[in-house]
Design goal:
The protein is of the alpha+beta class. The protein is built from 7 helices and 7 strands. It has 2 domains: about 1-255, CorA soluble domain-like (Beta Polymerase, domain 2), CATH 3.30.460.20; about 255-320, no CATH class. A hairpin with a 2-residue loop joins strand 1 and strand 2 (about 15-25). It starts with a strand and ends with a helix.
Length: about 325
């Protein structure tokens, strides 16, 4: 998809207010948004802006890492950063990251490129961002990064609530579903931490270098972006530690429950085996001193054996109970 926007100043109540409009042709100081682009759309932008072909294709690789690249011939600047998004599969919510490329064509326009539609750009497309002007390419770049950091913080809060919900469910009954959910959240937090560290390295390089022309307001905004990224990274690390601790705790609980069950089963086996040994003794096919018709006709020996077995069972149960095996 190829979208072209441009900010025009409109006078409202005696003051000039920027208004974003969608246009059909590429103009100076416009914003070109490419998501899931076709080959024809890529070739059109490359040809009109004389961009290196790889600049628009690098961000379309899901495995592309955040970095900065400058083309010496055209002085075009490519900035790749990771942004969070939600993937829903089979009623499961997965938090993942994807690369977004920001290409700055000198004296022309700014281009954003991504493999799929990126929610971080919705506020810009709907003209809901303060002081957003497509012609201010440096500020626009930092505003995108700032919005991405805000999205990280928003999704991290969602993850925190999901962790609390899963822990409440696990406190009632340990289920594979909730443990699997915690495992998926831990995986998402690793993705977030890795992406935030890489983004921070890109931002620090932008702060140190002179690849982009920065005004004082731009430098202040860049500092805010770095602070937001560091805060998001710290939160991701904290939540990751919480999940790891929770998983370890429940692993210990499960192991303890298994041990308790094994102790109970072992004790029950011994309890059942004790009377079996007595009755098996009388079941042997050998003569006894008190064997005979009179012994068989008398009910008291049977009663005595039964009472002895029950007493032995009771004594065994009491003995195991005192040792907390029941």
């Amino acid at each position: 998809m190829l979208e072209i926007y441009k900010t025009e100043l409109k006078e409202i109540n005696g003051r000039m207010v920027p208004e974003l409009k969608r246009i059909d042709e590429i103009e100076t100081d416009c914003w070109i948004n490419l998501y899931a682009p076709t080959e024809a759309e890529l070739l059109r932008v490359e040809k009109e802006l004389e961009l290196p072909p790889e600049f628009l294709r690098y961000p379309l690789d899901e495995e592309e890492r955040p970095r900065i690249d400058l083309d010496d011939d055209t002085q075009s600047l490519l900035i790749i950063a990771d942004f969070p998004f939600i993937r829903r599969e089979d009623n499961n919510t997965k938090y993942e990251t994807m690369p977004l490329g920001i290409v700055i064509a000198p004296h022309r326009c700014i281009i954003t490129v991504s493999l799929r539609e990126n929610g971080v750009l919705d506020a810009f497309r709907n003209n809901r961002t303060r002081d957003f002007i497509t012609g201010y390419r440096t500020r626009f770049t930092f505003q995108i990064m700032f919005a991405g950091a805000k999205d990280y913080l928003k999704y991290l809060r969602f993850i925190d609530k999901t962790i609390d919900t899963a822990e409440r469910q696990l406190s009632k009954s340990i289920s594979n579903k909730e443990l699997f959910k915690l495992m998926q959240l831990g995986k998402s937090l690793i993705y977030f931490s890795t992406s935030l560290k890489s983004n921070e390295a890109v931002l620090e390089r932008l702060m140190r270098s002179k690849l982009m022309k920065k005004y004082e307001e731009d430098e202040d905004l860049l500092e805010d972006v770095i602070i937001e990224h560091r805060q998001a990274l710290e939160m991701a690390n904290i939540y990751s530690s919480i999940i790891n601790g929770t998983m370890d705790a429940y692993a210990s609980i499960i192991s303890n429950n298994v041990n308790q069950i094994m102790k109970f089963m072992a004790a029950m086996t011994i309890v059942i085996s004790a009377p079996t040994a007595i009755t098996s003794f009388f079941g042997q096919n050998i003569p006894f001193p008190f064997d005979g018709a009179a012994f068989i006709a008398n009910p008291w020996p049977f009663i005595a054996i039964t009472v002895s077995c029950l007493a032995l069972i009771a004594l065994t149960i009491v003995w195991f109970s005192r040792r907390k095996m029941f």
